[in-house]
Amino acid sequence: MSDFRIVDKLQKLDEDIQRNQLNYHAKRVLVSKEFTFDAAHHLHNYEGKCKNLHGHTYRVILGVSGYTDERGLMIDFGDIKEIWKEKIEIHLDHRYLNETLPPMNTTAENIVVWIYEKLAAALLEEQRYNGARVEFIRLYETPTSYAEARREWMEVE
Length: 157
Prior knowledge:
Layout: E1 28-41, E2 54-67, H1 77-88, E3 95-96, H2 97-100, H3 108-126, E4 133-142, E5 145-150, H4 151-156
Parallel strand pairs: 1-3
Antiparallel strand pairs: 1-2, 2-4, 4-5
């Protein structure tokens, strides 16, 4: 009926698996974490509904790549959350974006680049993640509409 079972013996470090076996590979990997925030804004020089003050529940996906450490970890998901909370979200969540972001038209296209830059700066500042770099930021303004910033676009252009 079911293949459920409780393990016979819990694997023990230095007994069943050696420390030098924890990191399985030396390849670049990408991890991502998703967040939501609520914010209000309006657009300048725009003829449409968004010229009026309104709000969104934004969804953002952060993609970070790098090389794993001796434990097989590139970056802890909790560390990404901490960077998001302390360096980025404080400027966005339940805020009037026209006031809290640098002078810009608060389009998804502008905000996604700002988030990219903030995350990239935070990773550089930390300098404890092996080769960590931002690969992409995807910012959903609505469930079906998003803007994206990618490393190859940010570094070249």
